[in-house]
Amino acid sequence: MFRENIIAELKSKINQEPNNIENYRNLANYYIGSTDYDNALLVYEDILKIQPDDYQSLINMGSIYFYKKRFPEALKCNNKAKEVEPDNYATYYNLGNIYAEIENFELALSNYEKALELNPDNSDIYSALGYLYQDVDNLEEAKRYYQKAIELNDTNSDNYINIANIEQNLYEYEDAIINYQKAYDLNNQNSKAALCLANAYSTVKNYPKAQEFFQRAIELEPEYYSAFVCRAIAYSDDNKNEDAIETLKNAIEIAPEKINAYIILANILTDEKRYDEALMIYKTANTISNDNPKLITLIANVYVLTNNYTQAIKYYKKAIKLDPKNNEIKLIYIEMASHYIENKLKGRK
Length: 349
Description:
Layout: H1 2-16, H2 21-33, H3 37-50, H4 55-67, H5 71-84, H6 89-101, H7 105-118, H8 123-135, H9 139-152, H10 157-169, H11 173-186, H12 191-203, H13 207-220, H14 225-237, H15 241-254, H16 260-271, H17 275-288, H18 293-305, H19 309-322, H20 327-348
Helix pairs in contact: 1-2, 2-3, 3-4, 4-5, 4-6, 5-6, 6-7, 7-8, 8-9, 9-10, 10-11, 11-12, 12-13, 12-14, 13-14, 14-15, 15-16, 16-17, 17-18, 18-19, 19-20
């Protein structure tokens, strides 16, 4: 009722002063604040009927369309905004974001560079360029832009995390830990930074330190699915399979629709020779994913391990039918079949 009263009051002001743009802005801002983006768009359209060159409305509409992944509309709004204010860096920054999202590297780069020309001390633009180069695996260039962003604003923890992610990919693990730690020190309530630190320590096999930060990430975000999955992997790498199994069960309770935890759990159970349990978990995951060739192959592999070749052949054939271009599955099937025939012939002797 409270929300309806506020909206009614704002609309009443619009009715009283139908050409007062600020009344419309207030209503649009209220809709945005309550994440009612569709109605916010309608209000901005009303503003543009009164004032077709209203820059802020065009930019805000573009941002909403971008958020809703309606990229053609987002481009249209921002290009119109560029016509209205050709020297406003924000327009080019937004255009760069759109082109980056639709994987047009050249247009994203040219728009970010124009934004930087107009606003050379804006750390967000350098961060965006870092993301852009990271997406095309130019890691050294990406790192350079993130470092420049930090020079301009050393309080954004994401830039430290991004640099550390690059260092992880370049096998610079100790440097990665230093930068993840900087991100965490900036905000020790940042569950993402805590998880990144945990994974980094796990990579260098410092499992006690890894578990400390896994625990911290989960304390900060009790239903942090990725933290449970990564923690389980660390337990498994540390030969603590029972802890890994319990952690994966927790992950499945948090997000039963996601299949990663099922697959890792079934893999561990298979390694433990708990084949019946593994089969049940794999089949559950396969039901959730509506026949995944990878999962069906894993099911077939378990049947091979239990010498149930009839079921193994059935599942390999099903996987090949679902993914006929997957030569890896075909090779596994051929190898298994050859082994099976060889054993049969030996048995006859």
